[in-house]
Amino acid sequence: MTTNQLISNDEKLFLSIIEHAPIGMCVLNKGYQFELVNKAFCDMLGYSKWELSSLTPMDITHPDDKAVSLLHLDRLIKGKVDGYQLEKRYLSKAGISVWTSLTISVLRDDAGNPYNYIGQVQDISARRLFEDQLRLAATVYNSSMQAMMVTDVQNRIVATNPAFTALTGYSTEEVMNKTPQMLSSGRQSKDFYAEMWKTIESDGHWEGDIWNRKKSGEIYAEWLSISAVKDEIGKVQNYVALFSDVTKKRQAADKIWEHANYDALTRLPNRRLFYDRLNQAMARIKRTEKTLALLFIDLDHFKEVNDQFGHQVGDELLIQVANRLIAVVRASDTVARLGGDEFMVILSELNESSDAAKIAQSLVESIFKPFYIANETMHISASIGVIFYLQDADDADSLIKGADTAMYQSKKQGKNQFSYYLN
């Protein structure tokens, strides 16, 4: 085989290697124009070999990357370096930015003069996109106004963001490898947390309101969202919690609810909440063998006191009456004000019907004691009607109507007493 044949074979091998390389390959002449490009390079940018033959790498370089590309090229041409590696963007034929990792090597003759440049171009768009997404995620994570906390599969804290520290008062170092239990206020039961984790395990997500404790000891209302992060086969790798302080919002909502359900003067449940409590009590009593009694209380001589001493004294009298009623009944009972000088008492889950009589008599005696308001001594009394659920009536309206009837019976019999509803 002749020398020329060997050279020819080497050239063919060289060209074949370039053409079939899995990454983009190009050979540039001394004028830094494309002399040879392979299929991978053409596919990457959408140009044909013929189209690239009339272009230079600078012609298809992204405008924002031209300055740094020219700087490296100048150092290469002047012989300061024999090659360089650079991450840069090319513009495809369709005008789309393509991130690449470019490695340029120089071929020199025996005199040291460059005669060709070999370029290796690898598409790193997917990697750069992933890195951009990571940077974006990190930016969101660190700049989010919502506190974020990441735990491992054993529920140990592995990361928190600045908003977490701002809200809880704990630094990342203070909570690292500890469980979120350190933030617990103690207000939620074990059953609450068991149900929460049951939902996370089945649905992969849970959100709701919860009470937690700051480093300072302050207990606050928190909106919490927990999501399970799974790998490609569905195995949980981490849990991500997002939360924010909703104490003010919760307090505002509580005030609205309180305004809608409580009497503004006495702070007793109003008619609306009374009906709700009564219906709940009736539902519970059906599942037991105990007794439920309803007491309708109307104050005797209240109008005379109100007319003689004025509404301000009358209001104070109603407040003191409410306090006395609460002091007599059990904590499980409900005292409500329907309006004016009318009150209702729900005696739930009594062991005996006679227990209602004892409480009713205690209420009569309590109200009959003198009241001292604005340096004045006042005397009023109470007429009370007593009715039993299921025994006398089986719905809320019938109970109230029956108790009202029994109360008027007490008034007819001389006031300052209680009477049973007689069906």
Automatic annotation (TrEMBL):
One of its GO terms (molecular function) is catalytic activity. Residues 84-136, 204-258 form the PAC domain. Pfam families: GGDEF, PAS_3, PAS_9. PROSITE patterns: GGDEF, PAC, PAS. It comes from the Bacteria. SUPFAM superfamilies: Nucleotide cyclase, PYP-like sensor domain (PAS domain). Residues 10-80, 133-179 form the PAS domain. InterPro entries: DGC-Regulatory_Protein, GGDEF_dom, Nucleotide_cyclase, PAC, PAS, PAS-assoc_C, PAS-like_dom_sf, PAS_fold_3. Residues 290-423 form the GGDEF domain. Gene3D superfamilies: 3.30.70.270, PAS domain. SMART domains: GGDEF, PAC, PAS. PANTHER family: DIGUANYLATE CYCLASE DGCT-RELATED, SLL0267 PROTEIN. NCBIfam families: GGDEF, sensory_box. This is Diguanylate cyclase. It comes from Methyloradius palustris.
